[in-house]
Amino acid sequence: MKRIFSALTAAALLCASAHAAAPIARIQAMLAKPDVMCGRFDQTKHLAGMNKPLASSGRFCVVAGKGVLWRTLKPFPNTLRLTRDEIVHFEGDRVAMRLDAKQEPTVRMINSVLFSLLSGDLAQLESLFEVEGSADAVGWKVALKARAPALAKAIGAIALDGGAYVRNIHIGEASGDRTDIVFADIKTGEAALLPEEAALF
Amino acid sequence: MTGHKGLALAWAMVVCLLLGHNAYLWLGQRIVPDTDILALLPVQERDPVLQQSFSHMVDAAQQRVIVLVGAPDWAGAQRAADAYGAVLASRPGLLEQAKLDGQAESDWLAPFQAHRLALLTAQQERDLRDQPPAFWTGNALARLYSAFAGPKLGAFRDDPFGLFGGWVQERAQETPVRPRDGRLFVADAERQYVLLPLTLAAPAFSMAAQEAVLPLLGRAAAAARQAAPGVQVISAGVVLHAAAASSQASGEVETIGLGSLAGIVLLTWFTFHSLKPIGLVLLSIGIGFLGSLSVCWLLFGRVHLLTLVFGASLIGVAQDYGMYFLCNRLAADPACDSARLLKRLLPSLGLTLLAAVIGYLGLAFTPFPGLRHMAVFSAVGLVFAWLTVVCWFPLLVGGGALRSGRLARVYGAALARWPRFRIGRAALAVLAAFAVLAGFGWSRLTADDDIRSLQTPPPQLVSDQLKLGKLLDAPTPVQYFLVRGASSEAVLQREEALKHRLDPLVAARAISGYQALSNWVPSARTQAERRVLVESRLLGEGGPLTQLGKAIGEDAAWSAATRAHLLAPQAPLTAEEFLSTPPSEPWRHLWLGQVGSVHASIVALRGLDYAALPLLRHAGDGIEGVQWVDKVGEISSVLGRYRQYMGWAVLAAYALVFALLLPRYRGRAWRVLAPTALASIATLAVLGLTAQPLQLFHVLALMLLLGVGVDYGIFMQEQPDRRHAAPWLAVGLSAANTILSFGLLGLSRTPALHAFGLTMLIGTALVWLAVPCFTAETNESAHAPATTD
Question: From A78, A171, B292, B721, which residue has the greatest number of CB atoms within 10 Å?
Answer without folding.
Answer: B292
